[in-house]
Specification:
There is one protein chain. By secondary structure, this protein is mainly β. It has a domain at 16-132. The protein contains one helix and nine strands. It is globular and about 35 Å long. Residues 154-168 have a biased composition (Pro residues).
């Protein structure tokens, strides 16, 4: 039996561009995965972290997070969703109206307790770009999709592999 993921503890340090998200203590044998990948932190009007997208996770990390995999038939678990095709992890941190986003390369450390996320630490590079938040999302999909319908889970079946998130526009881009 799986236990529900607790509401995360969130600590956003804007000066250091460091986000620490805790989902409860890790057990006796925690496992850590560390990667440098594209990421986006979405902030509300008061500068609080609302959502985080961690993209292009290597297969070994996505496989370790398989319990959070979503599809059109399986919705997110407790505000955590993983698109395994794109290696895209989405964490909903708090309710709020997105006002700004910071995006760029991030050093990410994920601490696992078995298959459960215990903690995520993300530090954006100093060159991370600040820009207005993406437009309002549509539908109730597991990973927020902009009104344009783009996004990692909006591909029709058989459409092929997910776009490369290191080069493809992120939802909300105005390129």
């Amino acid at each position: 039996m799986t236990r529900p993921t607790p509401r995360p503890g969130v600590d956003w340090d804007a000066a250091r561009r460091r986000l620490l998200v805790g989902y409860g203590a890790a057990g006796d044998h925690p496992r850590q995965e560390e990667v440098s990948v594209p990421a986006r932190v979405v902030l509300d009007g008061q500068g609080g972290a609302v959502d985080v997208d961690i993209m292009a996770l290597p297969d070994r990390v996505a496989d370790a997070l398989a319990r959070y995999a979503v599809s059109v038939r399986r919705s997110p678990q407790d505000g955590i969703a993983l698109d395994t095709d794109a290696g895209w992890l989405w964490l909903h941190l708090a309710d709020g109206v997105p006002a700004e986003q910071l995006r760029g390369t991030a050093h990410v450390r994920i601490t696992l307790d078995g298959s459960r996320i215990a903690e995520v630490e993300l530090t954006l590079s100093p060159t991370a770009e600040a820009e207005p938040a993406p437009p309002p999302t549509t539908g109730t999909g597991p990973i927020p999709r902009p009104a344009t319908g783009a996004g990692p889970l909006s591909r029709p079946p058989g459409a092929g592999p997910a776009p490369d998130p290191t080069t493809a526009p992120m939802p909300g881009d105005r390129r």
